[in-house]
């Protein structure tokens, strides 16, 4: 039998959580698995003020004393307390490469959504609580078949999900229902002379229903079936990959007199393909180039939305005339995964002929900002770099260093900068190991984001310092790790530009976390 127990405490939200997983053989090649998780937390402590600098200045200029008082809100993010619990159980038959399994899982959660404070005295901001529940069953099979195809793989699942949006007085404002199923079947080829690959089929069927005052989407369903293949050829230092996928998608929405939306039905056939190669140069360095053409169908939200979404604090307006989102892209990569220095770097460029995006309009409806789904030509380009290196030994400690950096630019023609694009970010870390103790300290710097979409506010940059210490008291089983972690040690005010609630809900402030993990 094998078991894994993890216990956590976090100070920023007085978070208490635990996870337990158990695997037990029950004879005859059968293995039983069970796991559970529980978490409970209070309103989140944040660094600094709740409102961003621009909104605080607007609040202080208001003649209304209640609005001016919003500028002084700090430290605690109201309506963010919650709890969640999960349970799952499954059984598998394992005999060499033959693996058959079935599982069932249940999820419950109740959590608050950060308040989008209004600077208009006539608008009462909402403070909804989400009460969510999901049941899911899954089936998997890995069956060796021999011959040209080595193995058959199958994954399938059915789920029933619903959640209620509860008002502060306890009344249920809206209920959301989503039921569906998905499956994927693959055949993996036997490798022949460096040639291998996987081909398969995927299917998705999902229904959506909303009942209540904050209905933003008519009753709708989404059905997709896709066929794909991925092929690889390796010849000495050269590796070539190519893939293709075709999908048949149908999205339907019922007529809804309350939303003012007619019955709609849209069908799409997106086709995507890619090809690339990487080559081993010298001293374990590999360089690669890939080219791709990608297409995707719009979602039901993008096509049919027309109402207030309490969960995201937006009034969403879809466009039933949206077409396929299409893009052509190229990516250049370089890797080194051996030796004292590991490097992984990518530079990419994508040109969209009809990029789908959420556009803030600056208009308020039902106390929420209106966001419209639109489509336009766009250019995305950026880079990602990751590196770690061994620095050697000093003071009896094995030292290492890590650095990560990424940046992206996105422009939509006849619109401007794309919304919610993160700024340049760099993270540098120093690690050390001595005996059974591991330590790490890191500094993350996010630059200010001034390249904003119309009606989008800029976001200030921040510098955050984190540190952690892990102690492994036993050299062998049971595996026990005791951890002390400090995130945002200097309690700085930090906001993610990619968050729709960034001007009202900063990131967690100083968070001291204690954890214990034991496995045997």
Automatic annotation (TrEMBL):
<keyword id="KW-0798">TonB box</keyword>
<dbReference type="InterPro" id="IPR039426">
    <property type="entry name" value="TonB-dep_rcpt-like"/>
</dbReference>
<dbReference type="Pfam" id="PF00593">
    <property type="entry name" value="TonB_dep_Rec_b-barrel"/>
</dbReference>
<dbReference type="InterPro" id="IPR000531">
    <property type="entry name" value="Beta-barrel_TonB"/>
</dbReference>
<feature type="domain" description="TonB-dependent receptor-like beta-barrel">
    <location>
        <begin position="82"/>
        <end position="489"/>
    </location>
</feature>
<keyword id="KW-0812">Transmembrane</keyword>
<protein>
    <submittedName>
        <fullName>TonB-dependent receptor</fullName>
    </submittedName>
</protein>
<keyword id="KW-1134">Transmembrane beta strand</keyword>
<keyword id="KW-0813">Transport</keyword>
<keyword id="KW-0998">Cell outer membrane</keyword>
<keyword id="KW-0472">Membrane</keyword>
<dbReference type="InterPro" id="IPR036942">
    <property type="entry name" value="Beta-barrel_TonB_sf"/>
</dbReference>
<keyword id="KW-0675">Receptor</keyword>
